[in-house]
Write a structure and sequence with these properties.
There is one protein chain. The protein is an alpha+beta fold. The chain is 38% helix and 19% strand. It is built from 16 helices and 22 strands. The strands form 6 sheets. A 7-stranded mixed sheet has the order 16-17-15-14-20-21-22, sandwiched between helices. Helix 11 packs across helix 13. The N and C termini lie far apart (60 Å). 51% of the residues are buried.
Length: 480
């Protein structure tokens, strides 16, 4: 029996698998986010308590012993802990926006681009660099009291195993301090962000990821546990995306496009990130956009459409949505991939009194599809494409997405991140598992040739409208 633990932003899950990769049972517990004035924080004790609760519930249901467990979780943010992995203050989430003015300054003075050229990572307000710099300026006593600034899964691993010190892995360390060539921290980047005097807070990198035995809380004492990678690369492993050129699209609250690569290209427009993997010389070129199912949820809420109605509306409404078009950049923080444009906002055009709810829903799904295509192209997709996430529950949307992207979709359902965490743990412990069987798609959705040709033209139009919208943002900023 194998366990995968996925400590998400709003939900903590643990899944059990048999040796063939069949998902046997899942336990989940919600965790809260505290949102106030641009601050987005989480109670670390609540998060850790949810981990223990799901593990207690899951292991009580299992007929067999746990052979090993893998751990993954949300990335970025800042989780300040003492020497035992206990919180010094609430965790600052990857969704946190308090450091946006600092990032704006780094965008203007060239620091942002310099960091990208050195690490391949385009910073955003909720990543550790800006957050640590903000805390150093506004809450220095919190940093003084901390032993380490870690990531979510690292805190959980230290607590579950009683490890003497906190460590992280190369995937979580990638943003924004890691030199992707040497797989160690780039001290020049630390200096550029004004954090040299806080360098000791960066958790030592365990390469490959750390392993240890559980001490009996949540997991049976002696259970072998591996720490990492974090949720994006873990999902890539769980979907079988390891060969250069192959990609994964996670259709969740935000879109995340990832493409496996052996080519480290630090030229071009600074955006997205290079996530280091457990194989030196192999990266995931990631374009984690802000656009995603949250855009569709807003349209559904505004129009009074229930989620259960979406498939029928998509089926009954023709491609092009009777002329309604959506640039789906609804996030208050603008967009971060495959370009960085904090001032960008959504646009709805072609709407008239004759437009229907179906037109608005389909146009939004098409717009999200175009944004996904943009991200995947920027990430360098040339091979097969796997898709996972909550959006895969809509079969009509998956058909539309295959048409918009113009390629087959390997739909992978279930707890993909937890599955990847197990595969990573098995590799660390030398346990032979059939990765092909573990990552078999639930179905393959083929595009329709005629609709794909229609959407290829629609995508070109989307890029034209997007370029104009970005130009308008720049013009407005210059005039203020």
């Amino acid at each position: 029996m194998f366990l995968g633990i996925d400590v998400g932003t709003s939900m903590v899950k643990a899944a059990a698998f048999d040796r063939t990769g069949r998902e046997l049972a899942v336990e989940a517990r919600p965790v809260r986010l505290s949102l106030h004035g641009g601050f987005v924080e989480q109670d670390m004790e609540e998060v850790y308590g949810a981990v223990v609760a799901v593990l207690d519930a899951l292991t009580a249901r299992l007929p067999d012993d746990v052979e090993l467990a893998g751990l993954t979780g949300q990335g970025d943010g800042v989780w300040l802990v003492d020497g035992e992995g206990r919180p010094v203050r609430p965790a600052a989430s990857w969704m946190d926006g308090r450091a946006h003015e600092l990032l704006d300054r780094w965008l203007a003075d060239g620091t942002f681009e310099t960091v990208f050229r050195r690490t391949g990572n385009a910073m955003f307000p909720g990543c550790p660099g800006p957050l640590l710099a903000w805390l150093d300026a506004h809450e220095p006593k919190s940093l003084d009291a901390a032993k380490a600034a870690v990531y979510c899964k690292d805190m959980v691993f230290q607590r579950l195993t009683g490890a003497a010190r906190a460590t992280t892995d190369v995937s979580d360390a990638s943003m924004p301090f890691l030199d992707p060539r040497s797989r160690s921290y780039d001290n020049r980047v630390v200096e550029l962000l004004g954090l040299t005097h806080r360098r000791g807070l960066l958790a030592p990198i365990s390469d490959p990821p750390a392993t240890a035995e559980a001490h009996g809380e949540g997991l049976p004492s002696g259970t072998r546990l591996a720490n990492g990678p974090y949720d994006l690369p873990a999902s890539a492993l769980g979907a079988g995306v390891t060969s250069p050129g192959d990609g994964l699209l996670i259709v969740g609250t935000c879109l995340a496009a990832l493409v496996a690569t052996t080519d480290l290209d630090l030229t071009g427009e600074p955006a997205g990130m290079y996530i280091s993997t457990d194989r030196p010389g192999h990266w995931l070129r990631a374009m984690p956009a802000m656009v995603g199912t949250a855009a569709l949820d807003w349209v559904l809420s505004t129009t009074g459409v229930a989620h259960e109605e979406v498939d029928a509306l998509l089926t009954d409404t023709p491609p092009g949505a009777h002329g309604v078009r959506v640039l789906p950049y609804f996030a208050p923080s603008g967009e971060r991939a495959p370009f960085v444009e904090p001032g960008l906002r959504a646009e709805l055009t072609g709407v008239s009194l004759e437009s229907t709810r179906g037109d608005l829903v389909r146009a939004t799904c098409e717009g999200i599809g175009y944004a996904a295509r943009h991200c995947l192209e920027a990430a360098g997709l040339t091979g097969s494409l796997a898709v996972c996430g909550g959006g895969t529950r809509s079969h009509a949307w998956m058909r539309l997405l295959a048409d918009v992207l113009g390629r087959p979709l390997r739909v992978v359902e279930g707890e993909v991140g937890a599955r990847g965490a197990v595969l990573a743990a098995a590799e660390r412990y030398g346990v032979a598992l059939d990765a092909g069987a573990w990552t078999e798609p639930t179905e393959v959705v083929e595009p329709d040739a005629g609709r794909a040709a229609y959407y290829a033209a629609g995508y070109r139009d989307h890029l034209t409208r997007l370029a104009q919208a970005r130009a308008n943002v720049g013009s407005a900023e210059r005039n203020t």
